[in-house]
Amino acid sequence: MGSGDSPGGRGSPGSQWYDAEAGPLVRPYAMTGGRTKPGPGNVRFDLIALVDIAADAPGVAEESLLGPEHRALLSLCRCETQSVAELAADADLPVGVVRVLLGDLLEAGHVTVRRPVPPAQLPDERILREVIDGLRAL
Q1: What's the pLDDT at 12?
Q2: φ and ψ of 103, to 5 deg
Q3: Of residues 2 and 112, more confidently modeled
Q4: How far is CA 45 from CA 18, 22, 86, 114, 120, in A?
Q5: Cα 136 to the center of its chain, rounded Å
Q6: What's the rounded Cα separation, in Å, for the pair 43 and 50?
Q7: In three state form, how does the secondary structure of 97-117 look?
């Protein structure tokens, strides 16, 4: 083993935060400042909650003050409205981290979040089956 190598394939082209196979390593708590809950209001983001850029979102100057993970989420939201689960997958971040970061973005007015439709407000399955049967009859 060389002077910068350690077990598990970790090599050091500069620091202990680099893994030869995985690349740069950043711990989730470093991205959220040690927080585990989003914002002071403890907003809970469902996995299927839809996130979009706010119509009156702050400008690019304010975005430049954000961390790289915040900016990555904003970039993904600009492409299309996405669910919390999709954002986590596309940003390659843990869902818990994405929820905390989205809380920051929501609080700063960068994004809007639409809650999923409650099951009680969804159409009755019987009505949907009648519509499908009617369409098939055409």
Answers
A1: 47
A2: -60, -40
A3: 112
A4: 31, 29, 13, 10, 19
A5: 39
A6: 14
A7: HHHHHHHHHHHCCCEEEECCC
DSSP state of 1: -
As a whole number of angstroms, the distance between CA 33 and CA 43 comes to: 17
Question: How many Cβ atoms from other residues are within 10 Å of residue 71's Cβ?
Answer: 15
Separation of alpha carbons 8 and 12, rounded Å: 12
Helices (H), strands (E): how many in the chain?
6, 5
Looking at residue 32, its amino acid is T
Average pLDDT over residues 18-31: 59
| φ, ψ for residue 101, nearest 5 deg | -65, -40
pTM across the whole model = 0.62
84: number of Cβ within 10 Å: 19
Residue of 56, 57, 92 lying closest to 73 (CA atoms)? 92
